[in-house]
Amino acid sequence: MHGAGEGPPLVATIRTVAYLGLEARSVEVQCQLAAGLPRFSVVGLPDKAVGESRERVQAALASMGLALPPKRITVNLSPADLPKEGSHYDLPIALALLAAMGVADREQLADFVAVGELALDGRIVGSPGVLLAALHASEAECGLICPAAQGAEAAWASGIPVIAAPDLVSLLGHLKGTQQLGAPQVGTVEEAPPGPDLRQVKGQETAKRALEIAAAGGHNLLMSGPPGAGKSLLAACLPGILPPLTPEEALEVSMVQSVAGLLEGGRISRARPFRAPHHSASMAALTGGGLKVRPGEVSLAHLGVLFLDELPEFHSILAQMGPI
Description:
18% strand, alpha/beta, Ribosomal Protein S5, domain 2, 2 domains, 13 helices
């Protein structure tokens, strides 16, 4: 039942993403304010981090001098059957709520994808996967709202407007036109750091020839020999004879690093990844997974080198893999 003169409660929406591996799936954040006992609920298969966003959003709005309206607040993350994980839902939930309250323009926000975690004082802090969200926004031909610290990372997705805001107050000021946030600059491309050089290896001509063949053809390589023969040094020299990543490959590797939260300052490297996990690493650390799914060493070595030193010591992993 609605009061006299009241229409049905309006729904404010804004888009965000859910990360499934290296794929960003579109998620619509819907917020409705309705008459009834005051409450704030988030539905749509959220995990604990998403459920806790209610407290962060409420505290962030309070830091701006805004109180939640005494109404029944329902936030739905659609599609409801897709699991929602991570803290990057804080910002889109806050923006959908502000649009439902009339503080932000709901039609303006409909043209953006938003990702970012909120601090209790209203700051917008970084969250993994911004590069994937930017590429998704580019495909959807809409803009991106993200934390200021990750603006350089998002700017790699060219052709879309990126609003990199340090806090909610400046973001609202930019959207209303009372404040101007500068467009973020594209992150730098790092040169490959100096590493072991194959010229430092004396002798071992057969092993060096095997390295060159493996590098040229992208083959796997198994080195066997007595301790001190130089196997580890030879393996560490392998990235130095691999060609640098192409721009497309560098972006692909950076997407994995973005999901893992390892892409600092939006800096993209043209060097091939080199990962050397210890033999005590767990199966989840190597292949990825866990309670909160993260890329493992195999994924982080994508288009690069995965070096398993003392291979027989990985007995627990080899036992789970079965006969090769």
